[in-house]
Write a structure and sequence with these properties.
The protein is an alpha/beta fold and about 240 residues long. The protein is about 50% helix and about 15% strand. Bound molecules: pyridoxine-5'-phosphate (PXP). Pyridoxine-5'-phosphate (PXP) binds next to strand 8 and helix 10.
């Protein structure tokens, strides 16, 4: 079975820092520690209001992150300028409007196909891998493939919210979507609302997933278990699913 990477979204560390101003907790140190503890990627989502990760953080992180650096966000002019100057390994395009609390839907890749294609061409020409945040609709995934995206990131909120009631039902559409994306030669990432309860089942039952991006639950768990233990607990959930 192929491996699945854990990319840790460190937005929440920046949210905590910004609550007081200053540099505690230190976002760069947290990223380096996460890598030291076994994290295989660092994800950030700079938003126009800089309410968590600031554009300056992204430049600082670029200088020191040695694992996969993933920058996600809406492709505004400012965002594109940032990623083209930082050149992360991966850019994940999300359709968020600027003030939304957190990403809450995948792209309408049918409607936005021409817009996405233009941006994806531009980013790929600059050497970045591009992933697009998507729901599980197969027609939408066809449209995502036509944009030239290298990967999709499946928006897993619906899986997570249905998991307690029926894991089998909650995962069914995701299995079809991942298989369809792989058939169309796109890689499959997944993220949003993943946690220590629902992660293993997802990874075990969707062999196409090559990367998960996890923030809120992981950073919250770290309050109880510590960052080192927590990163290792999440990695264990992933690794044991693929053995
Ligand atoms: N993927 C995308 C596109 C996101 O916007 C977020 C939240 O910033 C995540 C993954 C991670 O979600 P969570 O914080 O619920 O783990």
């Amino acid at each position: 079975m192929t491996a699945c990477k854990l990319s840790v979204n460190i937005n929440k560390i920046a949210t905590l820092r910004n609550a007081r101003g200053g540099t505690i907790p230190n976002v760069v140190k947290a990223a380096l520690d996460i890598e030291r503890f076994g994290g295989e990627g660092i994800t950030v989502h700079p938003r126009p209001d800089e309410r968590h990760i600031r554009f300056r953080d992204v430049y600082e992180l670029k200088e020191c992150v040695t694992t996969e650096f993933n920058i996600e966000g809406y492709p505004s002019d400012d965002f594109l300028k940032l990623v083209e100057s930082v050149k992360p390994h991966q850019v994940t395009l999300v359709p968020d409007s600027p003030m939304v609390l957190t990403s809450n839907a995948g792209w309408d890749a049918i409607r936005e196909q021409a817009f996405l294609k233009k941006i994806i061409d531009r980013l790929k020409q600059n050497g970045m891998r591009v992933s697009v945040f998507m729901d599980t609709d197969l027609k939408q995934i066809d449209a995502a493939a036509a944009t030239g995206a290298d990967r999709i990131e499946l928006y897993t909120e619906r899986y997570a919210s249905g998991f307690e009631k029926s894991p089998q039902q909650a995962i069914a559409d995701y299995q079809k979507a991942a298989a369809h994306a792989a058939f169309l030669k796109m890689g499959v990432n997944a993220g949003h609302d993943l946690n220590l309860n629902n992660l293993n089942y997802l990874i075990k039952n969707i062999p196409q997933i090559v990367e998960v991006s996890i923030g809120h639950a992981l950073i919250s768990d770290a309050l109880y278990y510590g960052l080192q233990n927590t990163v290792q607990m999440y990695k264990h959930q992933i690794k044991s699913a693929r053995e």
